[in-house]
User: What shape does this take?
Amino acid sequence: MDGFLSFLSGPLFRFCLTVAILGVLSQFLQNAMILVATDPGRPFRALGQGLRRWMDPVTRTRRNPWWVEVLVWASVAGVVVVPLFYLGHARLWGRSLGLLWPAVPAAWSDVLTRVTMVTLGLLLLARLLDRSVRRSWTLVDWGPLVLAWTAFVTGYLVAHPGRSPFAPDTTALLHFLSADLLLVLLPFTRVSRCVLMPPPCEGSAPTTPEVTR
Amino acid sequence: MKAILTDVTLCIGCERCVDACRMANDLGPQLPFRWLLEDGLSSERWCSVLRKEDHFVRRQCMHCIQPACASACPVGALQKTAEGPVIYDDKKCLGCRYCMMACPFGIPRYSWESPIPLVRKCQMCFQNRVSKGQQPGCTAACPVKATIFGEREDLLAEAHRRIQENPDRYQGKVFGETEVGGTCVLYLAPFDLNMLTLGNRLDERPMPERTVYAMTAVPPVFLTMGAVMTGIWWVIDRRMQRQREQDAARRDGHAEPTSPDDGKEG
Amino acid sequence: MTTTPPTTGAPLQTRRLKNVKALLWFLVGMAASFALFRFWRGMGATTNLTDLTPWGFWIGFDVMGGVALAAGGFVIAATVYVFHLERYRPILRPAVLTAFLGYLAVVVGLLFDLGLPWHIWHLIIFWNPRSPLFEVGWCVMLYLTVLLLEFLPVVLELAKHPVLSRIYHVLKKATVPLVILGIMLSTLHQSSLGSLLLIMPHRIDPLWYSPILPILFFLSAVGLGLMMVTTESLFSAWVYEQHYELDLLQGLAKVAAPVLWLYGAVRIGDLAWRGSLGHVLDSGLAPRLFVAEMLIAVIIPATLLSIPATRRSMKGLAIAAGMTVVGFVFNRINAGGLAMIETTGTRYVPAWTEFIASLGIVAGAALVFFFIAERFHLLPAGPMRHARERLPSVGEFRPMLNRGAAMFVFGTALAVMLLPSSALDGWPVVAQPVHGPGYNDVMIIDGNRNDKGVRFDHKMHLDVVDTQDKCAYCHHMVKPGAHATGCSQCHSDEHLPVSIFNHRLHQEALSKGPGCLTCHEDTSRPKDLEHSRPCLDCHRTMIPEGAAFQPAGAPNIGLAVGYMDAMHGLCLKCHQEQDGGHAGDAPVLSRCNTCHSGVVQPFDPLRPDQRLRVSP
Assistant: This one.
C-alpha cells in the first residue's frame, strides 16, 4: 500500500501535473490559433476578456448577497493556495520536483480548506438540484466539480485523521487518486475552456449561455 | 623538464600525498560511489594509492612527453607545458571528453555530478606551486620520500642508480622512461606496472603519432578530391555539350534543346 | 525526370501518415522533457556515462551513425551533378534534405553530449589542427552550411520577394561548385570519423582498430549513402502512399553491390594483413559482434543486391537497404562503443533516457522532413498540402487536442513520470564532518541513521573476541601485508535499512509459553509489525540515553555515532596520536583520504531515500 501511495503521489503525480500544464497550454495555443484565424481583427481583446471573465468566478446574471461573494472568493483562494502552499503539499512539491518553497501556517490552510469544501459542496448541490443544468451537463462538466470536491474533502480528512471515518490509507488513496485525476483531466474538460476559450464575439451565441462554473 | 619519481618499494601507503593533493588543489568531498572507479581517482581526487601484493602504488596523471589528451583536444584546452606538467584550461573546454577516451592511462575524470562539468586531473600543481618554484603538494607531503620531484634527467639517473645498487629490489626498468614515448611521472617497482594503464596494450610509440599520418593527409586528400571531381564534371559536361552540338548540327536548323540544368528540377 | 505528375493539393493526410506523425510527436515529447532535465541537472544525473566510458550511445549512434546515415546527400549530388546522371534527379532533393537534417540531428545530438554545449563555438576560435575531432567539427560546420545552401533553392523558388528570388538565382548558379565543395568536405569528415578512433588502440578491439580506419569509414559511407537514399525514398513513398521509384532505386542498388563487396574485401584483407583474422573465430563478445555486423551490413545485403530479381522487387530492395543501414549504424556503434567493452571492462549500459534522447532527435528530423515534403517541391509528387481541417467555431467546445499535440504532451508527461529521482533532484554532494568516537560498554548504534538504534554490547564483544589483537579484529581490518579492503566492500549496505529481527530465534525461545500470541496480538489480524507487541515491551534495555523513561538497572548505555563515523573517528584519532615519528610502523588503512572529508549527506527527514543513493 505504501508503495502504491508513494507511486500515486510521486511518479503518477508528476505525470498528471505535466499533462495538466502542457495540455492546458496546448489547448490555449490551439484556441488562440482558432481565434486568430476566425477573428483576425482583435484576437487579443477577446483573449483579455476571456481571462478577465475567468478571474471572476461568478457571472453577474443576478446580484449575489455579499456573503456569497466572500465565500466564493475565499474558495477561489483555497483552490489556489491549498494545493500549493499547504505544508504537506509544499513538502510533496519539494520531493517530487526538487523545488522547495515556504508553506502557509497550518491554521490558514485549514480554514481555507473548510471554506472551499463547503462552497464546492454547495455549488455541487445547487447544480444537482437545477433541472436545466442536470439536462445539459455531461460527464465532462460534472467530473472536475466532483473530483475537486472529493479532493478537498479527502485532503481535509488526511490532515485530520482523527475525524476521518476511513482508515488513513484509504483516505490518502482517495485524496491522491482524485487529485491526480483532476489534474490529468483538466485539459479535456470545460474547466480548461473557461480559462482558455475566450467568450464568443458579437454575433455568435455561446452554446451554453448560463456558463457559470 | 620537471618530473616525479615514485619508488613503490618505499611507499608505506599513508596517503598523505592524497590528502596533500586535496589541500593543494582545494578539492571537494569525494563523489558518490556511482562515479567512482576501482582506482579511487575521480574529479575530486587527482591522486590515489593502489595496492598490489605487499606494496602501494600511487596513481596520478603520467604527464606524458607527447600527451594523447593534448593532441586529441579539438580546442587545445589541454596543453603540455615546457616545464613538464600537462595542464587544463576550463575556459576553452567544450566537454567533448575526447581526452578521456584518448588517454592510454585512463586518467582524466569528469565532474559528472555537476550541470557545468569539467575535466579534472592532476596538473602537477603547475599553477599553484610549481610555477612559483615550489614542489607539488604530494611530493612535499611524503613522509618517507617515496615520491620525489625534480628534473627528469636527474630523477632518471637517480632511478638507474637505485636499480644498480639494489638489482633484486626492482624490476630492472623505470616505468615511464620509454612508455608511450616517455612520461614525466616515473616509477620504480618490483613488479610490472601495467595496472596503471588502460587496456594493457601500451608500447613505446607516442599516442599522437597514431593520428598524425591521417591528419597530414587531410589537405592533399581535400584538394585531390576537389580536383578529381571538378575534372570529372568538366569532362562529362564538355562531352555532353559536344553531343548536343552534334545533335543540333545533325538536326540542321532545328531548335536547340534546352540545357539539362534548366527547369528540370522538381 | 519526374515519374508522376505533381498532385498538388491532393488530400494526402492519410491515416498511416497521421499515425506515423503521432508516434514521432510522442518520441519528440519524451525527448523534450528529458532535455529539460539533462541541461538542468547535468549529464551525470541523467545518463549512465562514467569516467571509464565517457563516450556512450550518443557518440556511437547520434554522431558516428548520424554522419554516416547522412552520406546519401553527397553521393546522390555527385551522381546527378558531377556524373551528369540526370535520371536520378527526382531523388536528389529528398537526399539532400535528408543529409541536411541528418547533420542537424548530429549537431543537436552533440549539444546533448557535450558537457559545456554553450562553448561549441570555441571550435571556431581555438584551433588544434592535430586533433581529428577539430577537423570533424570544422567539416560538419562547413558541410552543414553547404547543404543548407544546396537545399535553400527548394524553399526560395516559391518566394516572390525580389531579394529572395535574387538569392535563389545566385544559389542556382553556384550549385555545381557547392556540390563539389560538399563532396570534398564529406570525403574528409566521413573518413575523419575513423581517424577519431586511431588514438585509442588501447580501447578498441583489434577487429575494428586498424590504421586504415579512415578509408574503411569512407568506403562504408559511400555504400551506406546509396542504401540510405533507397530507404528514405521507399519510406516516404510508403508514408505518402505514392508509387515506389523502383527503376531508379535499382540503378543505385547496382552500384551499391560492388561498393559493399569492395568494403567487405578491404575489411577482411586488412584483418588478414594485420594477422588478426584468427581473432574472428575466438569466443567472446567482440568476434560475435564482428560476425553479426559483417553479415547484416555487408554480406547478406550485397548478396541480395547482386541478384537482379531482388534488385527489381520492392521487398528485396527494402530488406537489403534496411539491413545495410542498420548494419552500418551497428558498425559505428561497435567501433565507437561496444568494441571497448572487453578491453576496458566497462559496465556501461545506456540509460533509457539516452535512447529516448536519440530517438527523439531522429523523430524531430523526420517531422521536419514531412513538414517540408508537404509544403515544397521535395518529392516527385510535389507538395502535398492536405485539405484544411474544419476549424471549430469559437463557442464550440473541443475536448480533444489534435493528435500530434496530444501525443507530444503524453510523451512529455510519461518521461517526467519515468525519470529517475537523480534526474529530478540532481546529485548534491555535501561534506559531512567526522566526529570523534564515543566509547561505552554498551552502545546504541544508529547505523542507517533513521533515529532507531540497535543495542551493541561492546564489552561483550571484547570478551568474546579472544584473539591477540582484539581491537584490530574489527577496527584495523587493513594492515600492511593483509589483503586490501576497499571501503565499499564492507560498507556496501551501510545506509540501507536493515531488519535485525530474527523470527526463528524468537519462535524457538518462546515456543514453551503462550507461543505466537506472545508477540502477535491476535491470530486473525495481519502478522506484521503494526499488529505485534512492541520490541521494547520485552527488550527494555534498547532505550537510548535521554529517552523519556529509563529502565531500571540498565548497563552503562550511551548513544553511539553511526558505524562509519565511529570507525573513521577512531582511525583518524589513533593514527594522528600514534604515528609521530613511526609512520612506517603504524597500521595503514586503505584510502582513508578518499572519504574523510565526507561523502554522506546529512540526513534529511523530508528525503529519506536520498541517503540510499549516496551509499555504494
User: Anything to note?
Assistant: Residues 157 and 166 of chain A are 9 Å apart (CA to CA). Chains A and B do not touch (no CB pair under 8 Å). The two ends of chain A are 36 Å apart (CA to CA). Confidence is low (pLDDT under 50) at residues 198-213 of chain A.
